[in-house]
Structure formats: structure tokens, C-alpha cells
UniProtKB/TrEMBL annotation, chain A:
Record GO cellular component, one term: ATP-binding cassette (ABC) transporter complex
Organism listed in the record: Rubritalea profundi
Keywords: Membrane, Transmembrane, Transmembrane helix, Transport
GO biological process, one term: transmembrane transport
Protein name: Manganese ABC transporter permease
Localization terms from the record: Cell membrane; Membrane
Length: 278, 224
């Protein structure tokens, strides 16, 4: 009960809970696309790539704010994505291999740069997030990004689904397949940047992949995967903060561990696709 | 007709009308799939044209429905039979128009016509081969397509399902649709289709199946 009292008394705890709920909801919703596209591996690569991107943006502009961070992250993700395509098309190296080499190299570069940045940074917060200390300004950003992602994903739901299911049929029907892919990519990076605060660059993959995967074990309805993922993401993020306070661990890892456990339970017990039910 | 900078098809020309079931017959790599995709508007044509109802078709028309080969479908995609058939309404709805009661009724009718009402909540992988073909046909019907382009629809079906699908295609043609399908089983082609287009990179003949399917013609097509 003392925890609830803490929440009532503390503005920062309330902010943390609202922020976590929003980030979890938007990430969980978008994880539907990540699961349907089956590109969890590239999400993982992109999330690591954000770190050097943001570090370089700070070096160039000498300040740290969200615009810089976003542009830096976007450019780094583009460079790594295109770089891996370039390598795979011009050599016998498979794209997954190329992507792994380039993103780990970029990530290492980012880690090497961090101590030399002109702004005081805490490597730990970058990697694992610090939702408990989310600022009003960050909260506004999270709200804006979540709203943009949810509105755009819903507006373009039909063409995006068609693009995912049958790209050539979609293209023939006049769906701008390329634009839909770019839209998906941009929204993905937006979500990654927004979830930095909550769970950091490494753990953000968990929020963007696990909720949709859990829903996949329960339903075949596409809309249920998206909205169910949103609810799972949101509730696990809130619960993660509670658990973190109760047993004195960090909030970011707590959220991801909860999601992982939920996935494990679903994998074992889901009435239709659970391992034990088969 | 270029495919990956290699000429896949040339000099193909044939005329047909609704109510017919046309088989595309030819050896592997003859360009049957490519021809179907070209008619469907799925691959760009370097030259040539398709006329439909007296006018030249420049881009995709919802009157044409393409049913992909089995291995080209992502069967694990989390979509139910009903969800798949609903996709047939997307071209009419565009991106944002609401899915109306009329659309739902069209989907219901399509499901009923293909005897899928009871299976509508199954995921597409949980169907038999014949049911899967019917699900894609239901989508084409929900799309209100008049030309059905099928890529090897009979491949992998057992005898009973094959016969059922043959009857179904016949019925769909009699209702005024044009069926064009690639087919490789020479023993069944005369039964299942009334017209045949022999293809091997270029056209090797077009006509009634019972006249055109002869050992000589087939030998000529396959060794072309």
C-alpha cells in the first residue's frame, strides 16, 4: 500500500506511469506490424544503431535534444540499412550477416564515443532507459509520437496489411508499396526513439516485438493482434514499474522481463497454439 | 514481355470471351505464370496490350482477380478465411471508406457461394488444399471480378478436391466469368477446360481443348 501512497504523493511517479502506459501501448500496437513483417532481427539491429546515431548528432550539434536525437537515429538507421543492402548485393555475404557486422560495428563506435561527448551522459540510461525520471518535456514527446504512430497506422492499415500479405498483388492494385514500406520504417524509428526513455536502446526491441508475438499465439484476427498487443504492452509497462518498486530493480528491465514471462506462459499454455496443449 | 531483362514471352495473341475456361499449357519455364501475371497487371509489360470489354486495359482493374500459386502464399499470415475474403472489398473501398453492411453482405454471399460459411473463422493454413483454393476464389468473387486468373490451381489437390474444383470453375464460367488457368496435367485438361492456349515462350496455338490437345500438338509445344 505504501507504493500507492508514493504514487499519489509524487508527480514523477505519476509521470512515469503515464509515460510507461503510452509507450507500452504504442509500441505494443506497432509490434503487430513487426510480427507480420517478421523483421524482429532488423528491429534489433536498428535499435542498437540508434546509439551511435544519437552520439554523432550530439557531437555535431553540441547539444542533446529530441530533434537531434531523432535525426541522428534516423540517419544512422538509414545508413546501416542501406549499407547492408549494398554489401549483400555486391558480394556473396548474406544481408543478415552484413547487417549484423555493420550494426555491431556502429554500436561499438557509439559506445566508444560516449565518454567524449560534450554533454554529460549516462551510458546506463541510454542502454536500459530511465522511465522513473521522465521529464514533462519527454512525456509530451512520447504522447506526440504515440499519437502520430497510432493515427497513421490506422489510417493506412489496409494498404499496409495488403503490402505485408501480398506485395505484388498490392502493387498491382495501385497500393504505393514502396511508400508503405518507408512509412513503416519511419514509424518504427519513431517508436524506437520514443521508447529510449522507458527501456533504452537495447531493451526497446522487447517492447516492439513481444506484445504482438504473444497475441499471435492466441488469435488469427489481425485487428486483435494490433489492439491486443497495445493492451499487453501498456499493462506490462505499468506493472513493470510497480514490480520494479516492490522488489527494488530497475523499471526498464522489469518491463521487459514481465513481457518475456508472459510470452513464456503463452507459449506453454495458449489454448490454440500453446506447446502443452498440442 | 520481359522478365528480369530476359524475354519471357513474345508473340502471344488470343481472343476469348466470358463463359470460357481457358487452360494455359506448356512446359516448365514456358512463361505460363508470367502470362497470367501480365494479364493480371502484376508484372510490367514491355509491349503489347490487353483489351477488355472493347477498351484497352492500362492498369490494374478490379474485374481481374489473380489467384497465386500455392507456394507464393504466406499461409502463416494471421488472417482468417473471412478476413481474406474481406480483402476482396479493399479495391472498392480504397484506403479509408468504411466497411459497410453491404460489403459485409457481399462477403457473406461469396463465402456461402463457395461453401465456406462454416469455415470462415479458420486461419488460412488450417484448411485443406481444396478449401484454400475456394477461399481465394471467394475473395475474387467478393471483389466482383469477371476474369479469374489461376496459377496451377489443381496442383497438390487430391482427386476428389480436383473434381470439386473443376465443377466449381465450370459453374463460375457458366455464370458469365472467364477463367484462365495454367495447367500441367495433360490427362485432365480436356475435362476441366474447354479452351487451350499452348505456350512455349510464344503462342503455339489456341482453340477448343478437345481439338487442340493432340499428341502431335503437345509434342510440338514441348519441344519448341
Amino acid at each position: 500500500m505504501s507504493f500507492i501512497q508514493t504514487v499519489i504523493d509524487n508527480q514523477f511517479m505519476q509521470n512515469a506511469l503515464i509515460g510507461a502506459a503510452l509507450i507500452g501501448f504504442a509500441n505494443g500496437f506497432f509490434s503487430g506490424f513487426v510480427n507480420l513483417r517478421r523483421n524482429a532481427l532488423s528491429v534489433s539491429a536498428l535499435s542498437h544503431t540508434m546509439l551511435p546515431g544519437i552520439a554523432i548528432a550530439i557531437l555535431v550539434t553540441q547539444t542533446l535534444n529530441h530533434t537531434n536525437a531523432f535525426i541522428g537515429a534516423l540517419l544512422a538507421c538509414l545508413a546501416v540499412g542501406l549499407g547492408s543492402t549494398l554489401v549483400s548485393r555486391n558480394s556473396r555475404i548474406h544481408q543478415d550477416t552484413a547487417l549484423s557486422i555493420i550494426y555491431t560495428t556502429a554500436f561499438a563506435g557509439g559506445i566508444a564515443l560516449l565518454p567524449h561527448l560534450p554533454v554529460a551522459t549516462n551510458l546506463h540510461d541510454w542502454l536500459f532507459g530511465n522511465i522513473i525520471h521522465i521529464s514533462e518535456q519527454d512525456l509530451n514527446l512520447v504522447f506526440t509520437v504515440s499519437a502520430i504512430t497510432l493515427v497513421l497506422s490506422n489510417l493506412f492499415m489496409r494498404p499496409m496489411l495488403l503490402t505485408l500479405f501480398e506485395p505484388n498483388v498490392a502493387a498491382a492494385q495501385g497500393v504505393p508499396v514502396r511508400s508503405m514500406q518507408y512509412l513503416g520504417f519511419t514509424l518504427l524509428i519513431l517508436m524506437l526513439v520514443a521508447s529510449l526513455q522507458a527501456v533504452g536502446t537495447i531493451l526497446s526491441v522487447g517492447l516492439l516485438v513481444t506484445p504482438g508475438a504473444i497475441m499471435l499465439l492466441f488469435t488469427d484476427r489481425t485487428s486483435a493482434i494490433f489492439w491486443g498487443g497495445a493492451i499487453i504492452g501498456s499493462l506490462s509497462s505499468i506493472a513493470g514499474i510497480f514490480v520494479a518498486q516492490l522488489i527494488d530493480i530497475q523499471a526498464g528491465p522489469a518491463i521487459i522481463i514481465l513481457l518475456g514471462l508472459l510470452f513464456l506462459l503463452s507459449f506453454l499454455l495458449s489454448p490454440r497454439h500453446g506447446m502443452l496443449k498440442k | 514481355m520481359l522478365y528480369r531483362k530476359i524475354t519471357a514471352l513474345k508473340d502471344i495473341s488470343f481472343n476469348t470471351s466470358c463463359g470460357n475456361r481457358v487452360a494455359l499449357v506448356g512446359p516448365n519455364g514456358a512463361g505460363k505464370s508470367t502470362l497470367l501475371k501480365a494479364i493480371a497487371g502484376l508484372v510490367p509489360k514491355s509491349s503489347g496490350h490487353i483489351r477488355w470489354r472493347g477498351t484497352q486495359i492500362k492498369k490494374w482493374s478490379r474485374e481481374f482477380a489473380y489467384l497465386p500459386q500455392r507456394e507464393e502464399v504466406d499461409w502463416d499470415f494471421p488472417v482468417t478465411v473471412r478476413g481474406l475474403v474481406e480483402m476482396g472489398r479493399y479495391p472498392q473501398l480504397g484506403m479509408w471508406k468504411r466497411f459497410s453492411k453491404k460489403d459485409a453482405a457481399t462477403v457473406d454471399q461469396a463465402l456461402q457461394a463457395l461453401d465456406l460459411t462454416e469455415l470462415q473463422n479458420r486461419q488460412i493454413k488450417e484448411l485443406s488444399g481444396g478449401q484454400q483454393q475456394r477461399a481465394f476464389l471467394a475473395r475474387a468473387i467478393a471483389q466482383e471480378a469477371h476474369v479469374l486468373l489461376l496459377d496451377e490451381p489443381f496442383t497438390g489437390l487430391d482427386r476428389t478436391s480436383s473434381e470439386a474444383l473443376g465443377k466449381l470453375l465450370n459453374q463460375l464460367a457458366q455464370e458469365g466469368r472467364l477463367i484462365i488457368a495454367s495447367h500441367h496435367d495433360m490427362s485432365t485438361v480436356k475435362n476441366l477446360f474447354n479452351k487451350v492456349l499452348l505456350v512455349n515462350q510464344s503462342s503455339c496455338g489456341f482453340g477448343n481443348s478437345d481439338e487442340l490437345i493432340t499428341e502431335e500438338n503437345l509434342a510440338a509445344t514441348f519441344t519448341h
